[in-house]
Amino acid sequence: MSRAELLASRVPRYTSYPTAPHFHAGVNASTYESWLRQLPAGLPLSLYVHIPFCDTLCWFCGCHTKVVNSYSPVASYLELVRSELSRVSAITRHGHPVTHIHFGGGSPTLLKSEDFADIAAQIRRDFPVTRDAEFAIEIDPRRLSDAMIAALGKAGVNRASIGVQDIDPVVQRAVNRIQPFETTKAVIEKLRAVGIDNLNVDIMYGLPRQTVLHVAKTIEAMISLKPNRLAVFGYAHVPHLKRHMALIDANALPSTEERIAQFGQAQRALVAAGYVPIGLDHFALRQDQMAIAALNGALNRNFQGYTTDAAPALIGVGASAISSLPQGYAQNESGVPRYRELIKASKLPTAKGVALTAEDRVRRRVIERLMCSLKVDLAVIARESGLAPDHFSRELAALGEVEKAGFVVIDGWKLSVPPGERSAVRLVAAIFDEYLDRTAARHALAV
User: Fold this and answer.
1) CATH class of the structural domain 19-355
2) How far is the C-alpha of 245 from the C-alpha of 71, rounded, in Å?
3) CATH number for region 358-445
4) Distance from the CA of 209 to the CA of which of 274, 312, 355, 398 falls in 20 to 30 A?
5) Is the model's pLDDT at 229 over the cut of 90?
């Protein structure tokens, strides 16, 4: 395959391995409960709470979310989340310290300030949250009230991830997300005023009507706000999976070459401003914990993306939330009606998952190291896993086209992705994916 053909491949983002399309109903509520009960006493936990609601639909969104016109469905859903939290807490009462809390969505800041305060307080009652726990939340700044900002500060939130995407009105109209730069700036100032100064900003490239100049101006504007971290995500146009994406004019999407140029522009501008490139698509100030973790080889990757969270178990709460435990992955029912039905019946709402095999664990290590460090020593991982050094000889041979295209450097059993090709690291990781069906169109473009 040519370089252009490789870049047009569709491969997973590898926030897990095996990836979510390979979860199955063989992992059920009984499986998940037994996994929870088997967690060793004292094992640290990370907690993820999913709020699957928004008040407007962003056409680029790939999340499990639903637009609501009133607050009553949200209030009703929160009662279900509280019930699930209580049930999981009752099962895991073995002194598991919670070192990381993350509210994602959807739009978690759609909640009323008093409701967020109540659920945050319940988490601290039901789980032994450590004093230095990271408490993060995803924010839509367009309708974030002063009362909610105050509630975030009072609840102990110490990191916020702010969705921006692009500051140009033309691009914003093309994806149905109108968000003036002044709105984003005002919210960041107010968050810092209540002590939330660890800030992440999400922007995107590959959006309809977006150009290199749009990306350059967006990056310049974000740098002026001095966030600790920026994530530069490539838009994945998959209308066959997310029907609302059909509202986007596919003819207005940038070409693969333009996407590459857009990411390259973002990377150059951020590096020049003092941000350290991390993994596939993240950037952090040199003194930030994520940059330090990346330098020390301690960076991790989970369903929220790159993280410094080192807890061996992540518990997902809410509709569609995914838990990652030492034994495997378990995902809740995605639809709120079925989720409600199971919670009301006092059951865990597990719909599917996958139990990890020994081979899965080895390949997960390889893929995670590539995604986090852009390099991996296959011989070392094989040896530490009790395998022969040539365990990955088939994959090494399969990397020939990727190496020829310049996306990977092979030195014996050591692989490294050139820094300038980091946006193509998923192509290298995919070689080690035994589950990947390359004929399926369920994944995003490689770049």
Assistant:
1) alpha beta
2) 25
3) 1.10.10.920
4) 274
5) yes
